[in-house]
Amino acid sequence: MGNAIFSKGVVGLYAYIIRRMLMLIPVLIGMSIITFSIVHAIPGDPTKVILGDKATPEQVALVKENLGLDKPWYTQYFQYMKGVLTGDLGTSLITKRPISEEIRPFLAATFELSMVAMLFAFIFGINLGVLSAWRHNSWLDYGTMIIALIGVSIPVFWLGLMELWFFAQYLDLLPSYGRVDPRLGFVGITNFYLLDSILYGDVTYLKDVIMHLILPAIALGTIPMAIIARMTRSSMLEVMHSDYIRTARAKGLSEFWVIYKHTLKNAFMPILTVVGLQMGLLLGGAVLTETIFSWPGVGSYIYNAIHARDYPVIQSGILVLATIFVCINLLVDLLYGWIDPRIQYEKE
Amino acid sequence: MTTPTTTRAIMGKQFLSHRSAMIGAMIVTLFLLLAISAPLITPYDYTERSPDLLTAPSAQHWFGTDEMGRDIFTRVIYGTRISLWVGFFAISGSILVGSLLGLIAGYYGGIRDTFISRLFDILLAFPSILLAISIVAMLGPGLNHALLAIAIINIPTFGRLMRARVISVKTEDYIAAARAIGMKDARIIMRHILPNSWTPILVQGTLGFATAVIEAAALGFLGLGAEPPAPEWGTMLSDARQYIQLAPWTMIFPGVAIMLTVLGFNLLGDGLRDIYDPKMKV
C-alpha cells in the first residue's frame, strides 16, 4: 500500500494535496456566493419575504440593519465573507443567538446519525453485495438485487415515515423521536451521545441512545446501502472470474478466505468511490430524515428555519453542510491514492 | 459496419428482450396513461370534500379519505400529472442548458471550458437537495420554483456528460475531415457531434427523471414545493404526517406512487444503458 507515494516521492503527494486544495478555492468562493444569495439576492424586497406582509416599519428597519441590507451588494458580500472567515455565521432572527454557537450541538447530532447510517450502509451493503456475487443468479442474488433496486427508488422521507408508523407506533418497539428519552435526564458532555453514554459508563443511557438511533439510521442508510450492494456485486463479479482467484481456490483456501480476503480486497476501489459519493447523499438525506424523527441535527435546524423564515440560519446551515461535503470529497480523493497506488498524483 | 436501420432494429429487439427495461417501460407507460386519463378514471374531483374524514380504504374510497374528506385515490392519480410534468420539464431544461454548456466547454475548450467546468464544480459542491432548498428559499416556495430548482441542480450531470462525449467525438477522423473540407463549427456540431452524443444523454435523462420525481416530492414534503390544494405526492405526505397513527393510508398510497414511478424510470434507464452503452454497465 502506498508504494506510489514513496516511489514518486513524498513531494509528489504533498504537491498533489496542495494542488487539490488550491482547486477548492474557486469552488468555495462560488459556494459562498450561492449561500450569500439566499438572503441577499431574494428577488423583490428581502425584508418582506423574511418578515411577511404584516411587518411593522421598525421590524423592517431592524432586519435591514441586522443583515446589512441597506448597503450595496458588494459591501454586503465582503461583510458576509469577513464574518464567515472569522467564524461568524450571523445571528438567528428568532433566537437572536449567534448561529456559530447555536449550530454546534446540531452538527454533532447530524454527524453521529450520519456515521451510524453510513456504518449500517457499509456493513449491510458490502455483505449483501458479496452474498449476491457469491451465489450469482440464485434466488438469493435476485432477492438481494430486488431489495437494492427498491432501495434506490424509495424516497428517504417516505421510508422514514413508514418505519415510524410500523416500528414505533404500530409495533411500539422503538422510540419515534429525539436522541434520548427526556425522562432519563441525560446531560451530554460532548454532544455525541453515543460517546457520552460510554463515558458515563451507563448501560441504560447507551441502550436508550442506540434505540433512538436505529430507525433514523436505517432510513438514512438504506439508499447508500442499496447503491453499495449493487456496486459491490458487480465489482466482485468482475474480480471473481480472474485467474488469481482461481489460483486461490486451487490452493485449497477456504471459500470465506477467497471471498473476503482475495476478491473483496481487489474489488474495493470502485466500492470506496461509491461510499465517498454517498456521503453527500447522506448529508442531503439527513435534512429529510431528521425532520421525520425530530432528530435535533442541522437538518431539523434548517427545516425549522425554513418555516420560521429565519434566513440567516438557512444560509449558514447550508453553508456548513456544503463545506463538510466538499471536505469529505477531498478526503475521499486523497484516500484513493493511499488505497490504489496506481493513481498518479501528477495527473488530474 | 451495419446500416443505421439494422442497428436500430437490433437495439429494438434487445430492448424487447431486456426484462427490466420492459418492466420499467410498462410502469412508465402505465403512469403516463394514468396522468392523461385522470379525469376519466377518478370518481371525484381532487378538491371535492366528503363528510367522511380520514376513513379507511373502502369500495367508495379505494385509498381512503384524507383529513378534509378528499378521496386519496383521486388525489394520487392527479398527482401523477404533477410529478410527470415537473420531471419532464425540469429534466428537459437541465438537458438543454447542460448540453449547451457542455458542448461549448468540450468543443471550444480553453477559458470557456475552465469557466464552465468550475461552474459545474460549484453546483456539484452542494448535496443536491440542499442546493434545491437554497434556490427555493431564495425564490419563494411554489411548484414552478421547485421545478426551476430541480432543473438547475441537474445541469452539471448533463453538462459533464456532454462535455466528455464531445471531447471524445471531436478527435475522430471524420470531424477532422469535415473541418478540412471547410465545414463550419455550427454545422459540424449539428451534423456530427450532436447525433453522436445523444445516447448517453438519453440514458442519463431517464435516470434523471427518477431523481427529479423524488426531488420534487422532497421539496413538497419540506413545504417548499406545490402549494395546497394541489395533489402533489410530497405535499400530501407532509399533510398526512400528523395522522400517521390514526390513518396510515393517507401516507402509504402517495409514497407507493412515488416509489413505483421512480422504480419505473430507474429500470428503464438501467435497461437503456445496458443496451445503448454497455461500457457504462453497473
Largest interface: A-B, 51 and 42 residues
Strand fraction band of chain A? under 5%
Poorly predicted ranges of chain A (pLDDT <50, ≥5 residues)? 1-7
According to DSSP, the number of beta strands of chain A is: 0
What does this structure look like?
- Chain A is built from 15 helices and no strands.
- Chain A is mostly helical and 348 residues long.
- In chain A, α6 crosses α14, α13 packs across α14 and α13 packs antiparallel against α15.
- Helix content of chain B is 73%, strand content 0%.
- Chain B has twelve helices and no strands.
- Chain B starts with a helix and ends in a 6-residue tail after the last helix.
Q: What's the quick description here?
A:
The complex is a heterodimer of chains A (348) and B (282). Chain A is 76% helix and 0% strand.
Main features:
heterodimer; A: 348 residues; mainly alpha; B: 282 residues; 12 helices; 73% helix
Question: Secondary structure elements and their pairing?
Answer:
The complex is a heterodimer of chains A (348) and B (282).
Chain A: H1 3-7, H2 10-40, H3 46-51, H4 57-67, H5 73-85, H6 99-134, H7 139-153, H8 156-170, H9 193-200, H10 203-240, H11 243-250, H12 255-266, H13 268-292, H14 298-308, H15 311-339
Helix pairs in contact in A: 2-5, 2-15, 6-7, 6-10, 6-13, 6-14, 7-10, 8-10, 8-13, 9-10, 10-12, 10-13, 13-14, 13-15, 14-15
Chain B: H1 4-17, H2 19-36, H3 38-41, H4 72-108, H5 110-124, H6 128-139, H7 143-170, H8 173-180, H9 185-193, H10 198-221, H11 233-240, H12 249-276
Helix pairs in contact in B: 2-4, 2-12, 4-5, 4-7, 4-10, 4-12, 5-7, 6-7, 7-10, 8-9, 10-11, 10-12, 11-12
